[in-house]
Structures are given as C-alpha cells and as structure tokens.
Design a protein that fits this description.
The chain has 419 residues and is of the alpha+beta class. Helices cover 38% and strands 23% of the residues. α4 crosses α13 and α5 crosses α9.
Length: 419
C-alpha cells in the first residue's frame, strides 16, 4: 500500500507527530517551532468557540481566562470515562470528541508541514490500555481507531510504544544486542525485550526479534496523584476531623481533585454546598475553606501543575516547595525526595516486578539483557530508574530523547508499512 503516512505518538502528557522527509523521519512543528505539544485543550468561554491547544491552552487557563481545560486526555480511553460527557458551558460534549478535536489538530499541523494530505497513520499504543481486562483493552484501541478515522485518516494501524522506541534506538546501534525498552510515560509503563542490530534494521518482518512485551497503568500522572495526596491535599483538609462524632473528613473529593482526568468532575454545585457544610463542622476550618475556594474558583488544575513541577524538581533535588500562592497568599507545601519515594513505593515495586516478568517471559535470565533503554518523561524519576534497573542489574543504561523516541520510531514504522 502506498500513501502518505505519519507516525503519531498521542501521549497522556505530551504528543508528537512525524512524517518522512528525504527518507528520514522528521517531527512536525505542532506549536510554533516546537515538535512536542502538551496534550491539553482549552475551551475559551470568554471568546465563544475559541479552542486552544498545548502550552497556549495551559497558559490561557493559568491566566484565569474563563473556560475549561482538559488534560491527560489519553487516560480516558482506559477508564469508565470513555463513555462519559462533560459540560462545556451550556452544552454537553463526549470526552472522546475532545480527543478527536486534539488528534485532528495534530493532523492539520502535520499536513501543513508536509504540504499534502496524510492518509495513513501508525498510532502508538501502550502494551496495556487496561490492566487485567482484555475486552476493555480492545475497546480502548477500537475507540482510538474510530477517533483517528473521524479525524480523517483512511488507514490506521498500531504499534506498541516501546517497540517504536526500540526502532528509534536501533538507528544508533553498531552491534547486535538484546535490549529491555522501558517506556515510562504519563499514563502507562511499557516494556519490551527485543533483539536489535544494524543487520536487522531493514528486515520487513521483525516479529521474531520481539521476544516479550509487558505493561501496566502506572505513569507520571499516578506519581502526581500520590505526591498531591502526600504534600498538598492535607493543606486542604485531608486527614482532618469533623466536630460531629469526631468523624474523619471524607476522602473521595480529594482523590478526584488529585487525579488529572477527574479534576473537572469536582466542579459541581453539590460539591460546593457539601464542602461549605463540612467547613462549618470542621476542626480545621481554614484548611477546608481552601478546598472550598479551589472548587469555587476552579483551581484544581493549577494545583496539579504546581505538584507536577515539584515532582520534576525532585528528580534533581532532595526537596522542593510547591507554590500555592494562587490559593492563599504565601501558602507553600513542602515536598521531599524521601517523602515522594515513600509515596510511590508501591508503584515502583510493581515496575521492578513487571520488568522482571518481561525478561522472564522472553525466556531469558536478567544477565542476558545487554542494555536498558529508557524513554518517556517519567523515566527521569530516580526511583523509577532504580526500580527498573534492579530487574537487570548488569545491563548498561541508555537513554534517548525522553519525549520523542516513540514518535520517531512510529514514523519509521509508517515508512515500512505504507511505503
């Protein structure tokens, strides 16, 4: 089949799209000159009908323009939200339609760069959209395929994201080796054990080189969630008690507010009314009043961005301050590397087990792995790297472009599939 094709890495946190130019994969500029765009959409209520994307969407939201920000769009494919709608002003819109708007935007940007229509796409997908549920996993891919077709792609195929990253890594390999690819993204962690080498690159069928795959819904948004519950939500009343019967403050709303994909669902009049009643009955009314202000002024995403910034800072430092001055003048939350590592330990232990299982499923001993290739923004987290390295302690550690390896590999695969 011959048609103009692209490779599309639609990520939970960031996205990129590539085309072939001069026989080589090249990423299209999708926001100014940038080839990486945050997976975010802002619906501007002040300028009716205006829809913004990426960093512009986030900046407009932070600038307190009236509207609704949608982020971590990919995560809805693996959750019950796949069939839900959200209110945009006075109308309801399916969350899958928001994903379609974003995918169509990327396609349009890439076509402008290519100077022609892009008829085919090789879409990246995690090894598992949904853990332990094959039917739900298949549904998530089917929904994403339907979205891609509605966005205008006539041919749609999928590649596991760590396999795409392996194809990109292989471009620099000068000898044959067995590699564990660890793609730790915003929403999922995916592993592949693959045999790569310069003499294998041009083979049309690589199925025999792919020795095992494994994946789970563990990613950067989970780390944000856990850090928020550890460091920020207690300042909004989590863990406090009520005067009546000394009952604990209900937790459900804090968990929703700390989760990227459910923040917008906390903004209801019912929640505001209930939290106002709880503040009046609280033994820590100032803290619960901050929760009420967060709901009334739609500040959930600003908290999430502040937490994300602190998580990134903790990759290089032992401590970080989470600035919450937008909530209360001078308010900060303290975060530490030790506290963060403790909060995410159950997840990092699962990553060690998952990487070890992938190696075992390949029929190999840990010392058969020559290299662990890290990609994905969350692979920068020291606790994550240490956890995965523990599964193959003798392997060399390598890394490429944390955010772009998958997109470049998908584009190379698009060349193979669509000539």
């Amino acid at each position: 089949m011959t048609m103009t094709a692209c490779g599309l890495d639609f990520g939970t946190s960031n996205s990129a799209i590539g085309i072939l130019r001069g026989g080589a994969p090249v990423l299209a500029p999708v926001e100014g000159d940038a080839t990486l765009v945050p997976s975010a959409v802002f619906f501007d209520y002040e300028t009716r009908g205006r829809v913004l994307f990426g960093a512009e969407a986030i900046d407009t939201y932070i600038g307190q323009t009236e509207g609704q920000l949608m982020r971590a769009l990919k995560s809805i494919l693996a959750s019950p939200l796949i069939d839900e709608k959200t209110a945009l002003g006075h109308r309801m819109i399916a969350l899958t339609e928001v994903v379609e708007i974003f995918i169509r935007h990327l396609k349009t940007k890439a076509e402008s760069f290519a100077g022609e229509e892009l008829a085919a796409v090789v879409h990246g997908r995690p090894v598992r959209f949904v853990d332990n549920d094959d039917a739900a996993d298949a549904k998530a891919q089917s929904v994403l395929e339907a979205i891609a077709r509605r966005a205008g792609f006539r041919a749609v195929s999928f590649v596991y994201e760590p396999i795409a990253a392996a194809y990109h890594y292989e471009e620099t390999a000068n000898c044959e080796e067995i590699v564990l690819i660890a793609d730790i993204g915003g929403g999922t962690s995916d592993f592949s054990v693959i045999r790569i080498g310069p003499e294998r690159r041009a083979r049309p069928d690589r199925s025999h080189d792919i020795l095992a795959n494994a994946g789970a819904r563990i990613g950067g948004t989970d780390f944000d969630h856990l850090l928020s519950l550890e460091a920020v939500m207690p300042m909004l009343g989590l863990g406090t008690t009520l005067v009546t019967k000394n009952l604990p403050m209900p937790k459900a709303l804090y968990f929703e507010l700390a989760t990227w994909s459910t923040i917008n669902f906390t903004y209801t009049y019912r929640n505001e009314r209930e939290v106002a009643e709880l503040a009046a009955d609280s033994r820590a009314p100032q803290k619960v009043s901050r929760l009420l202000k967060t709901l009334r002024r739609r500040l959930g995403h600003r908290i999430a961005f502040a937490v994300e910034d602190a998580k990134i800072a903790l990759s290089d430092r032992d401590t970080a301050e989470i600035a919450l001055g937008f909530l209360e003048e001078g308010l900060t939350a303290h975060a530490s590397r030790k506290g963060f590592d403790r909060a995410v330990r159950s997840r990092t232990e699962r990553l060690t087990a998952l990487a070890a299982k992938c190696i075992a499923d390949a029929g190999l001993a840990p010392d058969a792995i020559s290299t662990i290739f890290f990609t994905g923004g969350s692979s920068r987290v020291p606790a994550v790297r240490a956890a995965i390295a523990a599964a193959a302690p003798s392997a060399r550690v390598a890394a490429g472009s944390d955010f772009l390896s998958v997109a470049l590999g998908l584009t190379r695969e698009a060349q193979r599939r669509y000539k």
